[in-house]
Protein 1
Amino acid sequence: MPPVNHAPQSPFPFELISDHLSVIERDIRAQAELFEPEVRDYFAYVCDTSGKRIRPALAILVANALDNCHHEHHRLGVILELIHLATLIHDDIIDGADTRRDTPTANAKWGNAMSVLLGDCLFAHSMTEATLFDDLVICRKIGKASRDVCTGEIIQTQSRFDLNLTRENYFRIIEMKTGALFAIATELAAVLSGASAETAAAMYDYGMKLGTAYQIYDDCVDLVGKEEAIGKTLGTDLERGKLTLPIINLMESVDEAKRESISAHLLNHGGTNLDALAEIADYKEALNNATQTGHDLLSAARKQLECLPANPSSAALEQITRYLDGLLSDCAG
Amino acid sequence: MPPVNHAPQSPFPFELISDHLSVIERDIRAQAELFEPEVRDYFAYVCDTSGKRIRPALAILVANALDNCHHEHHRLGVILELIHLATLIHDDIIDGADTRRDTPTANAKWGNAMSVLLGDCLFAHSMTEATLFDDLVICRKIGKASRDVCTGEIIQTQSRFDLNLTRENYFRIIEMKTGALFAIATELAAVLSGASAETAAAMYDYGMKLGTAYQIYDDCVDLVGKEEAIGKTLGTDLERGKLTLPIINLMESVDEAKRESISAHLLNHGGTNLDALAEIADYKEALNNATQTGHDLLSAARKQLECLPANPSSAALEQITRYLDGLLSDCAG
């Protein structure tokens, strides 16, 4: 049975870049041949069940906007998606997740040992493929971004049930774990298109801000979203002690006594029960402030697009920010 | 309390290369500064508790033998050791190991989630450091070797309790999981010393054969060695369904009926009881044949050293093979 995708309608103008995305999809599948025969079936499975190819799509849109999209952008898309797949495999081990997008996760199917190794194999393979760029700077940025993703996850894991997690550290975490790969998708696409350093830097900022806003949306929807709408288990962040922006806002907005009550409530693993939380404090404003932070980031991301020529692809990059604005608004109380 | 090292006396002539190894050790510690502050303590702990720096030592000896050892060899040593540390961290998760060299493993100390991420972070960091070589071929070989290590582990995990594991696949597994990193330690050291392609290829073969022989020794000692002699839990391979060369030899040497008995015995998790195994078949010859395979590999490794000039370092590379010959002989029945 093919995986059922319950995700919201994609904001990506697929028609505009469908040829490129088809090539990337074909190239992702073709990577299987580069693994030993024993690894290929595992690889094919995770390719089928995970990943929305957002990072490759962003890279292609930037390259198209700069009117210089070529095969190295396809390679970039493949590598970014493989790194993303590797992190998803390991995330599912860490979260003990049994399903992702309604299909069994790698750890549910083959156990943690195989999933640890499969993620490692994908990581090492991605980095090996990155050396095909013949540009060590690109290779290095991909390595650093991968390290940032892992580091963000480490600090997040370390901060579980740390009710004093600061806003500053929350942003450090999400910039590393989500922003880093978005940022190199758009930055390196510009570099490969021969863009100026200024344009590449603007594209880095666009990707970073978009990725960070996307993570804020993901964190908000985990708190208030409806499970059937997204196809993954929701309300799980608080249960796992992951403090996200709405809760950080809430903790900052209430007095000491309420903060104590909320802390006690969260530590008792009652975090998933929003009704109980609502009895202690009105979380709506905290939630709305979080979605507003997302809107602000998206607005700043749009500013970075000003250096691009006006064309359908640069319009699409703006359209993505508007789409995410809409999703954030849907989360607001 | 510092880790207690029960390992056999090292075969490495440390005096010959102690200055270089000190630099590498200092440089490994200095890597901590390149991680985010939250990661540094974890990193320092795994540096303290794991790794015998065999791969860096081999690289330095090859460079010295070629009379051209410089700071890039130190970088190579650091990178190889970091990759090795990353694989040890993940191996301990997979094996559910609580101690390594008498100190708690990362997973015993911080749990599997943190250990998965810490290994990933070390992997990604190693690959990032590899881009500092300004030579994409070196970078690519390091990536491929890392992928080979993971692939070898995947095939080994997949082959657990596969009583039909072939000799051919056993060698594929150990060449990838252990040989690959040894082989690039010696090959890339030669490349960085400006050696000819022939010498680099000979050094690759030396490292591959030495690493493979080392793994055969490790597998033999797991079967028959004494726990107090090595400082890690022994007799665990069979318990985990890992068929190694002595058992593959044994299965091939007996008739169908005995093969059935041995299989039944192993599948009943009685593998750790050598006495019970001895009642079914005489495993001494199978063990001796395995150690002989190790001796043959070491003899072939020595042949590869003929292209090196005669000097204390090339003598030391030969001495290492003789030392391993001695360890293998100690295992023989």
Protein 2
Amino acid sequence: MKSVYVRPLDLRSGHVDLAHGGGGRAMQQLIGEVFRRAFDNPWLVRGDDGAVLPALAPGERLVVSTDSHVVSPLFFPGGDIGSLSVHGTLNDVAVMGARPLYLSVGFILEEGFPLADLLRIAESMGRAAADAGVAIVTGDTKVVERGKGDGVFITTTGMGALPADRELSGAFARPGDAVLVSGTLGEHGMAIMAQREGLTFEGDLRSDSAALHGLAAAVLEASPGLRLMRDPTRGGLAATLNEIARQSTVGIVLEESALPVSQAVAAACEFLGLDPLNLASEGRLLAVCPGAEAAPLLAALRAHPLGRQAALIGEVVADERCFVQMQTMLGGRRMVDWLAGEPLPRIC
Amino acid sequence: MKSVYVRPLDLRSGHVDLAHGGGGRAMQQLIGEVFRRAFDNPWLVRGDDGAVLPALAPGERLVVSTDSHVVSPLFFPGGDIGSLSVHGTLNDVAVMGARPLYLSVGFILEEGFPLADLLRIAESMGRAAADAGVAIVTGDTKVVERGKGDGVFITTTGMGALPADRELSGAFARPGDAVLVSGTLGEHGMAIMAQREGLTFEGDLRSDSAALHGLAAAVLEASPGLRLMRDPTRGGLAATLNEIARQSTVGIVLEESALPVSQAVAAACEFLGLDPLNLASEGRLLAVCPGAEAAPLLAALRAHPLGRQAALIGEVVADERCFVQMQTMLGGRRMVDWLAGEPLPRIC
């Protein structure tokens, strides 16, 4: 084969330029030296326009989910846009009840972006995918002019296999169901905000970003009647519960005293006037199950390394107005609304 | 269900703001009033984190392909970023030999983008998908601050079903194979360039953007031994043939006199000093088949509305250097290299 690489990319001090998105030799070089190396698998090596995936087991159905990632800053305590773009999408597949198997990825790079940062991000994606047993099978790279993007945006699409006998949906919650969460709330959102604003708080404020497929599998096993799982990302627990209430036409009542919130997040929220219920988590799982299955499900969550601080936080009630409310520690009830605006843009 | 919509979106004179990407009420409203309406299908209505797709037929395998779309300008003669983002990705699935079935979509919107333009783009996507019999089953919306994006970027992932007995790849070309193209070259690239630079040329310069699944099916039927199909987009025919030559470790020799180029593109290329071989097409199909199948395949292409100007343009030869060459009309041979740089960024 003729050598088309005049010289290797300067991955130390080079930068992305428009030619890297042009479909020609420079793009092939970027794909080969950065992405194919970081995501190493037989599909990418083949270099076709797409990937041919093996058939699923009989009865299994494909679950697909997409997320675009525009988090700012790109690197933050506990992760970066690369690991987040893998976790975020494979978690969306996992909370549908499916075993995540494959990812595709679309990069939109800004001219002038340092190749060293791109490599770091690609390697972080590769590690996160490998750790979760997921292959990044196909992708695309575009470059926009300086000032028309913001470093790098990453859109990932996740595909997974849903067993024949399971189906979960936000529309399946019923009065009497229990609402559980796998750990403390809002670490991801608060870590991003602190990093962005240069704030430091007591305690370790790190993103909770994590792959939830193992925890989700434990939940599926512990609760045969499981209604649904969700990861409370953008908009936090408040938005997620309001969505579920609307999808299922039910109400939800939370117990304030039961909500797990770390001391660092609680302190930062108090200082900034924010509510942990509106802050994104990227490694927490919300589950709704029949009331009778709450105890074994809680035990299963707590037995998993990612669920040690799991809690039973509320219950589903009959309410055609679809209100989400909270029983406060003072004995009253208040509405838990989703925010009309956005306290914290670009957290994922 | 409680009414969470205080008032409908102002789709005439309103603009995207950061809250539309915040995971809360404003985002739900945007999704409901723009995307769910434009892409109407049972998966989206459900509102879960992803879509559960029906099982494929026994023996069929899933083909998946992703493209990010950053075309500038967003609207151009013959299409817009919406129709392009549907055609581009479903074509990548179709040229793998698969029947396109589903799309997922990730939007990255810039704060301040007119909602009227977003609606126009979403409706164009919806129409393009419906025309091709493809459902947009799941998606995501992010918003970045003014000056951190460029109106709208759209990443689509396409999924399709590959019959059990077929497999195509850029690695399957063999000496003696014939190279065919379904129509004139470079209309898309030249239409974008003319629009961007405010140039007018004689003749109708419109993008060739089109859904190729029907034409691809005709090719599969006409050529049982078909090696591969491609759509020569970024980098044009030159980049696509060089990729194939490298994947298959073969050479390719084109006949200049056989290359179909419209008069408008030829004139514009002459004026601008460009080569139609480097210009993107978005509705043309390149096929490589055993030499003996070239005649029936050419006939089948020409019998299809999208292939009337199809031509047999060259042949695959043994060449370990992977050279792509052209037999010129003057009788000589010249190299057809892919460009190191980028004559025309952001054409898709």
